Automatic annotation (TrEMBL):
Residues 138-153 have a biased composition (Basic residues). This is N-acetyltransferase domain-containing protein. Residues 206-215 have a biased composition (Pro residues). CDD domains: NAT_SF. The lineage of its organism: Eukaryota, Fungi, Dikarya, Ascomycota, Pezizomycotina. Residues 143-315 form the N-acetyltransferase domain.
Amino acid sequence: MVEETDIPPLTTSVADREAEQVDALRLIADSVAQQRQTASRAIISHPVVLTAVIAILAIISQYLFDRRGDLTLVVSTVAGCVLTWMAAIGYLTSGYIERAEQTGTWAWLHEGRVRISTSSSPSLSPPSASRTGENHSSRRRTAAARASSRRNRNRSDEESDNDNSGTNSEDQEPIDHEYEDDQDTIIVTRYGGQIIGALVLRSPPVSSPSTPPVPASTSQGSSANDGNKKATIRAWTVRMRYRNKGIGTGLLEYAVSQCRSRGWPGPVFAEQHANSTRLVPRWFQASFEKREKRARASLQEVMVASEAGVPETER
């Protein structure tokens, strides 16, 4: 008799349904909010800060005990100072919550995408008589497209105003029809019916006569040149309880295979990716930089293995 197992399958694929995309955006937003804990730990455990706090508390305790001789007063005062210090750290790192709310939206997903052009470039010379009818028709189509775009934006704004949740991913409508196709690909890893990993892959910029080249200072690749010619990873995260189990590597492998199959160079991590925000002084950014280097090293290892023809890990 064959025993039945209740272990759900682990699969990685492109998220085509809107519900899956919403769940992926929420997971990415959660990873941004979790950076608040990382920043708080970095501040509390910093040697200079920890030494200064202990010294101040010791001075206050000694002063109160010598003047009053009341141990209860000393303990309560020290506890109040510690709580005040923790509240100050919470205030300093609260910006990550706001950043998470901005990240888990369709607006963040479509940020920097190329909109579909609805108007032609102005001509330096007047049109010929033979093309007058065609120009009138083009203007009518342009006006209709602009009116449709305004209606879509107004409807999206109304739905956004009615949404009271922290992240607006659920009730907002995606506006892919206003942008060029095949620019953002959301890759997810599912454990059974739950999405436990997400990666956002953006295609390389497509230069066209109507679209000026991306300045080097605003590129999103690992360097100024990479951002102009390579696919970029704008977000990469795994649910906390499933980290360090190879799921993130599987997402990177799938992203690399997508680039290979579509003929895209790369990918590289975008400079302004979802978890790139640093809201604490440089002295407390060591843990962030360590994670950044480890992520880029993992991507490099996956790309080297892919070029060498090493089989991808089974999902």
